Write the structure tokens for this entry.
Amino acid sequence: MVVVMKEQATPAEIENVIQRAESMGAQTQPIYGDNHTVIALVGDLTQVQRNTFDAMAGVQKTVRIQDPYKLASRTTHPEGTVIDVGGVRFGGDQVVVMAGPCSVESRDQIIETAIAVKEAGASVLRGGAFKPRTSPYSFQGLGEEGLKYLAEAREITGLPVISEVMTIEAIDLVAEYVDILQIGARNMQNYGLLQAVGKTNRPVMLKRGISGEIQELLMCAEYILSNGNMQVMLCERGIRTYETATRNTFDLNAIPVLKRASHLPVVADPAHGTGDWELVSPMSLAAVAAGADALILEVHPDPEAAMSDGDQSLKPARFADLMCSLHKVAEAVGRSIANPADPQDSTAAESRESLFANEIEQEAVPV
Ligand code: PEP
Ligand code: MN
């Protein structure tokens, strides 16, 4: 932090600022310029309130030079964080593909989709059971019934599952069935919800708010991290701009910006980012080229009949085509696509083992 003194600040006013900063535990380094004196505050600034100085005589302004987010910052944690979900590693060398329908609509629909995305090489199954819809009259999701179908699809395919949690009250229920808790764009700044998922031990994928700045997204991640849960992924899912050609403007910049600012894995969601299935493939390839650690995509066996987001959902065959292209782009940028169906993939082998171990453990528990 730097305190900039006014041009006419007196030596006594400068000394007062130095005394006040030091009384709060900071070390000070005054820099005497021709016009202004600037006082740099270093060391332990935990007790230093930025607005303390603004009201003091002779002070022009206080400038923060450190990131306001601490636990999410790459400065405090230069190594990238790897989050292991049953052997699927987010933030490592491999790019993880999560796929599935926007909403879980029926048992058959989610199981059919799960098998199709697994065959095409997805590592995680997505599906919403609690849906944040713009209209209260639109399909709101199957709730617990949907979670049960997701868990069944997980059992059949071995794919870990991700699903959205919208309220604090539903956290325990959703966490009982899913491997990754999704916080949706509309809840990015629901601080109570963020604190509550921060107290769980479940990995969390935090989506960027529809009008959320990147720094706000990082501050929201900080709410989860500071409550003890260090397994947080950040998701770019498009933002609202003046552009009307697409549902949202997919902010490709956010991917390298987040990778530079933070050690947390970055997920790209080109389905919500574009709202248009024809744009999903090119933007998925672009996201991997830009450094995304994972993709989350919407796949539906019959997008025209989908109960939500059919326009941006890929048919399984198109998803399989996209997976082929993704392998090429990943290779071009020195990465590969995690593939649980590939016996050569050691990450996948671990994944199968750990999921299997989990099953044995569960069976061994007497009911
Ligand atoms: C979703 O993933 O289906 C969803 C509702 O996403 P978002 O919160 O980004 O709108
Ligand atoms: Mn959706």
